[in-house]
Amino acid sequence: MSAIDPERISDPSRERPSGASDPWGVRRAEKLLTSLSGVLSARVVVSPIGEVTEVHVLVQSGVQPKQVVRNIESALLAQLGLRVDHRKISVAQTAEVEPIDVLDQKAVAMEAMKRGVLFERLDIQSQARHRVTATVTLKLGTDTVSGEQDSADSAKARIQGAARAAVAALDKILPQGTLELEGAMVLDAFGMQFAFAGVQVVGPRGQRLLTGTCEVKHTAEEAAVLAVLDATNRWLQTQR
Length: 240
Fold this sequence. Notes:
Helix content is 36%, strand content 35%.
């Protein structure tokens, strides 16, 4: 059989309402082909008398064209009773197509890498004997790292403890050498409060002091963590 039989393919009363422009049931044939594994889209071309003249399909990268042709021949014959010469079937491949949400996630991850290490959260838990534990969680791309530091439960010590916890987390991503907090404090300037942090880098090429600042917008402890990131982010990007 070389032509599409409309009686075998479709129910005229259900799929070909008055005025429809698909008398040979081409749409159903195309829908069948797009259901095949690896096929992204399909187009069936027929002559005015319903004879199939061309079959064009677009398939995913990595799919074997010869296997696709065999699958098309088998599907059309088994489902529609239509025998099509393999020479009339054209197969085109596209580059690997990923869902848009996957592409969005990759774009976010790449942007995060460009921005360096990102602050995720700071948790401060009260302990016995008027002490607290600061836990800083940072994000690098899709990975997270955390650092902890115990300190006395006083304003100055909590700032130092939060900054040291941030340095402890950063030290886990440093490819070589180590980081050490030189100091962190909050000062008044220009009618606002700023956290200042100094971080010593100790590595194969010696020592280097990195400094950073951050305006206090939420808590002094959080600003101290962000000041540490401000001091180290650009330098860490050069190390990676």
